[in-house]
Amino acid sequence: MHYYLLGRSGLRVSRLALGTMNFGTAGFHAAYGKTEAEAEPIFRRYLEAGGNFIDTADFYTAGESERILGRLINSAGARDRLVLTSKFTNSTDPADPNAGGNGRKHMIRAVEASLRRLGTDYLDLYLLHTWDRITPVEEVVRTFDDLARAGKIRYAGLSDVPAWYAARAQSHAEAHGLTPMINLQLPYSLIARGIEPEFLPMAQSLGMGLTAWSPIAGGLLSGKYRRTADGLTGTGRLGGDGANGRPVGDRDWRVIDALDGVATELGRSMAQVAINWVATQPAVGSVIIGASSPDQVDGNVAALDFEIPRELRARLDAASAEPLPAPYSMFTPEYQSWIVSPGLDIGDKPAGYAPPVFNGTTGAAA
């Protein structure tokens, strides 16, 4: 029942978002998809737990995810209380070059099609799904603004783009008084920490709340998989010798072993500790969880019910750390205390500089 503002906006979202990539049994995600009858109890349990942030995309299960969601939302009478998010970029018709990418023509057609499938007249948050490498960022930002002014969307954001592109989009929107980007959706987990040097400070600086997807690394951090002489073993969609098409290396197993130990000490599941770690990292506004059953929803929600003690968090950080490449290695406190400000303790502002923020329940500082 805790909600926070997403980025530099007034939009209140729950700390866990429900990902619906597995709602439906068609298209790209069919292998692990759920029928509508199987998806409904998952959706209902998430709402019962207080969740209000729903994530889908036109590409998920060839549009079935949106159709199923539309019917479930209508049946629950929950449209007004939900923050409904969809995304566009991936092709919906390979024969049509304008049925994919991030151009204005596809973007407008895509949002109209998503609205029809979802049975709603607006999206709370609309995201560019993936950088297409060629569409001018100014065209994307202007179209977002037109859709917001037309009432088709309430807020805009980006998913899986380079940091420079996100910074350019936000700066262009600010400079021209256009609809800003309030959200940046990226993969983030103990296994995948590559966004930390650039994306996290950029999101904090430019007012974009980060929503992290794949917090348990596609299931690798769930505890279902173990190392054997032949590689990876376990029951799940990873299977075989790799995770999402990549080999599982020594560092991955080092992270898994450390996570297993911390989870055991805390009396929690590995997945809960992995989700908690992501949810409490700087710049993260919400974590996108998937679920294959109502019980899994309950387990994921319980990931917010505890704190990871400092010494155990340090253990996880150390096991998952990777050497920073240049020039990021020059931006660390260690490097700068050596050569930029030797012998001095310099910060951007004193502790307590910002005024306290109070919640609406107890009056205590949030």
Your description of this structure?
The structure is a single chain. The protein has 366 residues and is of the alpha/beta class. It has a single domain (3-218, 270-311), classed as TIM Barrel (Alpha-Beta Barrel). Helix content is 35%, strand content 16%. The chain contains eleven helices and 14 strands. The protein has helices at residues 36-48, 64-76, 104-118, 137-149, 163-175, 199-206, 250-266, 270-279, 294-301, 310-320, 333-339; strands spanning 3-5, 12-14, 16-19, 53-55, 83-88, 123-128, 153-159, 181-187, 209-213, 226-228, 231-233, 242-243, 246-247, 284-289. Strand 5 (83-88), helix 3 and strand 6 form a beta-alpha-beta unit. The two termini are 14 Å apart. 41% of the residues are buried. The model is unreliable at 362-366 (pLDDT under 50).
Features:
366 residues, alpha/beta, TIM Barrel, 11 helices, 14 strands, globular, disordered C terminus
SS content category: alpha/beta
Separation of the first and last Cα atoms: 14 Å
SSE order, one letter for each helix or strand: EEEHEHEHEHEHEHEEEEEHHEHHH
Question: Which architecture per CATH?
Answer: Alpha-Beta Barrel
By CATH reckoning, the class would read Alpha Beta
Note the total helix count: 11
Compute the number of strand runs. Answer: 14
CATH topology: TIM Barrel
Strand content: 15-25%
Estimated helix fraction? 25-40%
Shape designation: globular
Radius of gyration computed on alpha carbons: 21 Å
* Count of individual domains: 1
Strand order of the largest sheet: 3-4-5-6-7-8-9-14
Poorly predicted residue ranges: 362-366
Mean pLDDT: 92
Largest sheet features: 8 strands, parallel, barrel
The name of the CATH superfamily reads NADP-dependent oxidoreductase domain
